[in-house]
Design goal:
The complex is a heterotrimer.
Chain A: H1 5-50, H2 59-69, E1 70-75, H3 98-102, E2 111-117, E3 123-133, E4 138-146, E5 152-159, H4 173-177, E6 185-186, E7 189-190, E8 194-195, E9 208-209, H5 216-243
Parallel strand pairs in A: 8-9
Antiparallel strand pairs in A: 1-2, 2-3, 3-4, 4-5, 6-7
Helix pairs in contact in A: 1-2
Chain B: H1 2-14, H2 23-30, H3 47-51, H4 56-80, H5 89-111, H6 113-119, H7 130-138, H8 145-175, H9 183-186, H10 196-199, H11 201-219
Helix pairs in contact in B: 2-8, 4-5, 4-7, 4-8, 5-6, 5-7, 8-11
Chain C: H1 2-13, H2 24-29, H3 34-63, H4 84-106, H5 108-114, H6 118-121, H7 125-136, H8 141-169, H9 181-195
The chains are: A alpha+beta, B mainly alpha, C mainly alpha.
């Protein structure tokens, strides 16, 4: 059917307005639900590093548990607390994108710190986010340290597309459980924890975990990530240790 | 395809009061399920389908999304079929599909965030799923809305059952589970050797290749 | 170096066909003869190299949250990501049209060999796929261009190789039900297996 150009232009304009309007409505209408999902996702991961939350199904329960137990701050590379950005806007730790900060120079990044309190309000564990490169794409994680900032209490990894069945095993309980109880300091020196090559190794030290067979590259990525981020948080560790927990409430 | 469209039109004109589930209409739904399956016979829509068939759960979500998009885009285009200027019809079709796909993606993000993360860019790729475009061009542009909905349902389910079967085998042999339920562990076979090839893209090609073989042998369709 | 790596990775390791199944429809439909496969392959490389950076600019300066900053401070929080799909596909469709017109005007010879394939490309999943992946991976514009080019090249290699095999396949005895699509799927699987050997290469 041949139609005039005017008709085509009017038709396109009307269609564009209708479709655009529909999409805008949907986007605005669904925004609160989406934001809540993203928030829930972050908070689940943070809590997941410290404790087992797999049997809590209700999202609201997780959010209220988080509000009850976790307080957060953001520190810079020197370990000083940062509360507002250059324009004076408040910085919220949960909203800081570790992925975006990863692209900046280490000294310019913002580092969120999550503190897990026990009933009496004392900090029982610290959770630090990490980000790095795996074999194919990014890997990320949250590491939870006990109040002594030395013993690993739990760890939760995530990845974009490590090889299924090989590198992707870092998200399994089996691998993550291997980190629990290991320590990151040796006689006051930060040594991190590294995954060794191969699986089924005997005689591992306090700073080594067994590797994943067939996924040496992913393991190396995990080691690099842990080393880099623990190094970045070291000024904060020192500060906490010298000032004591009370200074941070 | 074009000859079929013409035939259908003539019939409708002769018998305006056609029953809701006439033989012809049942055919519109039934043919794509087997004899004229979009994937195994027409070779369409393989693009975005195979990448998400590693497990059954994302496959089901993807199937629902595709059925939704195909049915509603068929309906919308069919309603507008006499208004759409011929010269810009491809872009109009794409715009309608893209809008529907965006809706699906936004809803997933709001209510099923875990799945949104798993499917990632592949939801967006429904836009270029050849089945959707193909049905709009071949059917909805020349048929009434109700028939178009039936056609969309037929093609959508024809697509869905094939990728579901592929996902079933890939998850069973690749991860040793069905819908995340560890089936082999449940029957006491803890040492079931999962096959890495199945989780990989290669497994998808192989499973689909064999599936096409079986399906074509059954329907007797031979490509020359 | 980084750019070279991204292109190489997109070509061999993250091959559009073997790793992501993108552009399968035309891959299967137009791979019966090497000469036509060559034409379509070239057109895909061409269009991918152009659309990926164009969509990058669109994403960076219009769509993503805060992208409209250049229009004034009040636009700083505008997030148009929900228009991403529709904008990308519109850009691809119009770029294809534009490329077609430009080629027709300046190089009738090239138009003769590529022209008929260009309209097919707007609905080739690999074109839209490359743009969506490029956004997910946070590339810079140079990286995005390299990625687009590499993906196109990978697709080109895959379709040429398959077409060559299928030309030979005509003389083989294939079971009736497996003829055509069935055997092509199995061959694609085996080719994918060969491409897997690039995985070990650390870039």
């Amino acid at each position: 059917m041949q139609r005039s150009n005017t008709y085509i232009i009017i038709f396109s304009a009307v269609l564009t307005i209708i479709l655009g309007g529909m999409l805008s409505l949907a986007s605005v209408g669904l925004k609160p639900a989406q934001d809540k999902q993203i928030e829930l996702d972050t908070k689940k991961k943070i809590l997941g590093a410290v404790m087992d939350i797999s049997n809590i199904k209700d999202p609201n329960e997780i959010l209220s548990l988080y509000d009850q137990k976790v307080t957060s701050i953001v520190v810079d590379a020197e370990g000083n607390t940062v509360e507002a950005d250059a324009k004076g806007n408040k910085i919220v730790a949960e909203k800081v994108s570790v992925q975006k900060n990863y692209r900046l120079d280490k000294s310019e990044r913002l580092y969120p710190v999550y503190m897990f309190k026990n009933e009496s309000g004392k900090t029982e564990a610290y959770v630090f986010p990490m980000f790095g490169a795996g074999l194919w794409d990014w890997i990320s994680g949250y590491i939870a340290l006990d109040g002594d900032l030395n013993t690993i209490r739990g760890i939760a990894f995530d990845h974009k597309q490590e090889t299924p069945g090989l590198g992707a095993r870092i998200t399994s309980q089996e691998i993550q459980g291997r980190y629990v109880g290991k320590t990151i300091f040796e006689a006051g020196e930060l040594v991190s924890v590294s995954m060794v090559k191969g699986e089924g190794n005997a005689g591992l030290t306090d700073h080594q975990v067994d590797g994943m067979s067939g996924a040496t590259m992913t393991g190396k990525g995990v080691n690099r990530m842990l080393e880099e981020y623990l190094g970045c948080y070291q000024p904060f560790f020192d500060k906490v240790k010298s000032e004591g927990n009370l200074a941070l409430n | 395809m074009s000859t079929e469209t013409v035939e259908v039109k003539e019939k409708v004109e002769k018998k305006p009061a056609e029953p809701l589930f006439s033989k012809r209409r049942r055919g519109i739904v039934k043919d794509p399920l087997s004899d004229d399956n979009p994937i195994t016979i027409q070779v369409l829509g393989i693009c975005s389908a195979l990448a998400i068939t590693i497990k059954m759960e994302p496959t089901i979500v993807m199937s629902i999304a595709v059925i939704f998009v195909i049915v509603f885009s068929n309906l919308i285009i069919s309603l507008m079929r006499n208004l759409i200027p011929g010269r810009v019809r491809i872009i109009v079709q794409l715009a309608v599909i893209a809008t529907l796909v965006t809706l699906v993606s936004e809803v997933l993000k709001a209510y099923y965030y875990d799945m949104y993360k798993v499917l990632g860019a592949f939801v967006g790729l429904i836009i270029t799923n050849c089945i959707v475009m193909g049905r709009l061009e071949a059917f909805a542009m020349g048929n009434k809305p109700y028939d178009s909905i039936l056609d969309g349902l037929g093609s959508g389910f024809g697509y869905a059952w094939i990728i579901m079967v592929v996902a079933f085998f890939r998850e069973l042999f690749g991860s040793g589970s069905i819908l995340n339920f560890k089936i082999f562990e449940a029957i006491g076979w803890d040492t079931f050797p999962t096959n890495g090839l199945m989780v990989d893209s290669i497994g998808a090609f192989m499973v689909l290749g064999v599936l096409i073989w079986v399906q074509r042998t059954k329907t007797g369709y031979v490509e020359h | 170096m980084d750019i070279f790596n991204i292109a190489l990775k997109a070509t061999f390791i993250d091959n559009m066909i073997f790793a992501y199944f993108l552009g399968m429809c035309s891959f299967l439909a137009v791979s019966k003869k090497v000469s036509t496969a060559f034409g379509l392959g070239m057109a895909v490389v061409f269009v991918l190299t152009i659309t990926t950076p164009v969509n990058w600019l669109l994403q960076e300066f219009v769509l993503k949250e805060g992208a409209l900053k250049w229009m004034g401070a009040s636009f700083e929080t505008v997030d148009l990501t929900f228009l991403q799909f529709i904008m990308f596909i519109a850009v691809i469709a119009s770029m294809v049209q534009l490329v077609e017109m430009v080629i027709e005007k300046f190089s009738p010879a090239l138009y003769g060999s590529l022209g008929i394939f260009l309209p097919l490309i707007a609905v080739n999943c690999s074109i839209l796929g490359a743009s969506l992946f490029m956004v997910q991976r946070d590339y810079t514009i140079a990286q995005a261009t390299a990625y687009g080019f590499g993906s196109g090249l990978g697709w080109f290699l895959a379709i040429i190789a398959l077409a060559a095999i299928r030309e030979r396949l005509k003389y083989s005895h294939v079971p009736a039900g497996l003829k055509g699509l069935g055997i092509t799927m199995l061959i694609t699987g085996l080719m994918g297996l060969a491409f897997k050997s690039f995985i070990g290469i650390a870039l």
